[in-house]
Fold this sequence. Notes:
Elements: E1 4-9, E2 16-22, H1 27-31, E3 38-39, E4 55-58, E5 65-69, E6 74-78, H2 83-90, E7 95-96, H3 108-113, H4 121-124, E8 131-138, E9 141-145, H5 151-157, E10 166-173, E11 175-176, E12 181-189, H6 192-201, E13 206-211, E14 223-231, E15 242-243, H7 255-267, E16 274-279, H8 280-284, E17 290-291, E18 302-310, H9 314-327, E19 334-339, E20 353-361, H10 366-379, E21 383-384, H11 397-400, H12 404-414, H13 423-427
Parallel strand pairs: 2-4, 3-4, 15-17
Antiparallel strand pairs: 1-2, 5-6, 6-10, 7-11, 8-9, 8-10, 12-14, 12-16, 13-14, 13-19, 18-20, 18-21, 19-20
Domain FAD-binding PCMH-type: 9-177
GO molecular function, one term: FAD binding
InterPro entries: ALO_C, FAD-bd_PCMH, FAD-bd_PCMH-like_sf, FAD-bd_PCMH_sub2, FAD_lactone_oxidase-like, Oxid_FAD_bind_N
Amino acid sequence: xxWNTLSYTGWGRVRQAKGRVARPERRxxxxxxxxxxxxxMKRSYGDSCLNDGGDVIDMTRxxxxxxxxxxxxxxxxxxxxxxxxxxxxxxxxxxxxxVMPGTGFATVGGCIAHDVHGKNHHGAGSFGExxxxxxxxxxxxxxxxxxxxxxxxxxxxIGGLGQTGVIVAAKLALSPCKGDIITVTERxxxxxxxxxxxxxxxxxxxxxxxxxxxxxxxELGRGILEEAETGYGLVPDAKPSKSVRFEAPRWxxxxxxxxxxxxxxxxxxxxxxxxxxxxITEFFFPLDKLHGWNRLYGKSGFHQFQCVVPxxxxxxxxxxxxxxxxxxxxxxxxxxxRMGPGRAGLMSFPMExxxxxxxxxxxxxxxxxxxxxxEITEKAGGRVYLAKDATLDAKRLGKMxxxxxxxxxxxxxxxxxxxxxxxxxxxxxxxxxx
Length: 434
């Protein structure tokens, strides 16, 4: 197995790393490698996939679908398999991954390591709750773990940021679906209070809200609510893929341009609302057709701040949106969702409440603003999503993730030499909680 020295980044491109990278194609080749963190498509935004000055194992060539039971919907795949590929393969047969993040390029190993959530968290919970079994390599040791087999290690691996070893393969319980098209209903929502009421009242399987993060005053929190259900029928022609081939200039995301874009985007949906039929991938992975869209933020990259706060603290989100609007730093990408209680791991992000995600170009006061939002989140009893994080103050980790001590003690026993540590776990001092 050849090691190559490469420079690489997370999707936000704010943090960078340089080190040796190996790309095994078979489990036998993987077993011969020295212990090191595993990475996938590097779609986590911050530094969770970085190991500057050290080694990493790129799992993207280990992407095979190994077996499928059409009676139970149990699919076994290698860790490098991508969620979008699974959806495209099995939706025509009436099956979908039970939980899908906002990009189909996310690998199964990455979805487990971050216990990702989707547009149906309020009903289906997190990704890890639908994982039946994980094959894990720790140095020269191979372990097969599950909810009732080495359950403590299983809970530490799901949402565990890759700290318990290299995820080689997994068995997933797919969910029945009605087909490979999806019917999407879009409605304009005029303000924050109405948005919360609409999210709480939605009976749809899939629900997500786009927020105009530049809106102020009576329009604060306005946006578009999308509700969707899968179905059978003729599949509409998929929109052709496009690529961003250049670094956008700084002015492209200036405050006046973002305000104008958001206003036009809000009004693209008629006042009466509208319903359309789409290929499933266009709803679940709306930005995947624009390859390299992170270049729109320019060479300096961008941050995504994502938090979740308890139901009783919903007013905190209003205060955050107000602060963001007056800062004038937001991009057009801002999302609001209702979350249920489902979480599968000791370090899983979800909690019952509301989650807000906003992108900020990496310039000016962006990191200072995010620090203020993180403080508000902590005081509200919420937490920041580590899959998106590049800035969190290590002092906040224990309050946001109260099981980090238990997690750190287990990881310290499994990996006393810190072979699986990453830039993020070192920055946050995860293991110090042991």
